[in-house]
Amino acid sequence: MKLTNARGQRGFSLIELMVAMTIGLILTMLIGQIFINSRQVFASTDNLSRLQENARFALAILTREIRLATFKSDPRQPRSGTGGAFTLATLAGTDGGSTGTPASGLPDSFTVRFQGSGNGTGTADGTVQDCVGNRIDAGVTVVNTFLIQNDPANSNEPTLYCNTVTTACVAATCFPLVPGVENMQIVYGEDQVGAPPATLSPDGSIDRFVPASGTPAVGNWENVLSLRISLLMRTGDRVANTPTPSSVSYSMAGTNVYSPGNDLRLRRVFTTVIDLRNRSQ
Question: CA distances (Å), 66 to each of 111, 140, 179, in order?
């Protein structure tokens, strides 16, 4: 009969098993934490990328439409007055006012008017389009109003809209363009006219940047040569590590806009100056 060596059949002791399990749990927790952190970093980076993309798209649309303001199908035709191409101002803005204490600026809006290009009988050449991409033929006057409001079809996300008529913004004529635009503040570069014996006169250069209303404000919309636009963009997801306090303010074209607070969204301000080419040339 062959005897078995008892020493060769020894296994792990209870203490050794507990130590191994503890080390395994620690490693699992570390790997899990690394995975969670990586997911959070990815979500933040992805949302910021989308925010920047939306900002570029919004500013590109606004730039294109503002530069079209005052465009006339027939360059020989006067802008306004008897026989003029336009009966109303080709640029006009509305100040959104403010709310709360301290005062936080509400979104501004503005309207541009321009004519199309084509043969004048219904065939546009495609060089002039409205805010939603419709080709505009010669002699047709476009009215585009840009504003910020919540999009009910997108979880009430604050959105840059374009209204293609002069009446109220309704679904048939008012179109969402870019989501995540929480606020828009505008000041207007005016070629100021001075009363005699003042030396200021319409000379094609900007004398001041002022809002649409208040003191001071735009004196003559026909003398506005550029717009300074600030957009407050927010991420679609709540990816911030800590809530942004409601005391945090964003400086937008000379107006302070305060954060809603406690929503864990990231926000950025984008500002640009856009010339009205059909007035400054």
Answer: 9, 17, 20
- Domains in the chain, number: 1
Flag whether the pTM goes above 0.90.
Answer: no
Is residue 250 assigned to a domain? Answer: yes
Residue 139, domain member (yes or no): yes
- Give CA–CA dist 75/116, Å, rounded: 12
Query: Distance of CA 149 to CAs 84, 163, 241, Å?
Result: 34, 11, 27
Expressed as residue numbers, the domain containing 257 is 40-280
Question: Which pLDDT tens digit goes with each residue over 173-211?
Answer: 999 999 999 999 999 999 987 655 555 566 788 999 999
Query: Any residues with CB less than 8 A from the CB of 9 and at least 6 apart, and which?
Result: none
Residue 250 in contact with residue 257, Cβ under 8 Å? yes
Question: 10: buried, middle or exposed (CB in 10 Å: 19+, 13-18, 0-12)?
Answer: exposed
Triad 26, 29, 34: Cα angle to 5° = 125
Is 1 a domain residue?
no
The radius of gyration of the chain's CA atoms, rounded to the nearest angstrom, is 29
- Amino acid identity, residue 180? G
Is 49 domain-assigned? yes
